[in-house]
Write a structure and sequence with these properties.
Number of helices: 2
Number of domains: 1
CATH superfamily: predicted glycosyltransferase like domains
Helix content: 10-25%
CATH class: Mainly Beta
CATH topology: Thrombin, subunit H
Shape: globular
Structural class: alpha+beta
Largest sheet: 6 strands, antiparallel, barrel
Radius of gyration: 14 Å
Number of strands: 6
Strand content: 35-45%
Length: 129
Amino acid sequence: MLSWPKEVIAMLHDKEKRQRPRARVSWQVTIKSSQGDLSGETLNVTVDGALVLCREPLEPNDTIEMVMNVPALVSPLIIPARVIHSNICNPEDETLCYEIGVRFTEISEKNRWLISAAVQRESGVMLMP
């Protein structure tokens, strides 16, 4: 299990500037890519994608499979996705980490509802009406 300094997490949350904010939840993930498996942690999620903190970068447009361990669920969600961006968190910080933005490419309506319900239960944010 990865653990990040609270200061790093707070700094990254402050950088969120989306028109439709994502829900801030910290879920363990495994990203399966052509480079192998990467462990990470979500900074925020929506039913369309996620921002993940990892120790290794990925290339934009990489096709991945994201295995999300949602605390409210017995089994992890396995969701195909595409890397939108992969940026170093803070070049001056000695804690090397990358923010990886992913968009889910094939997500069932059931998995959308599961994510939405888990987010609402954990953070009170409603992602779907």
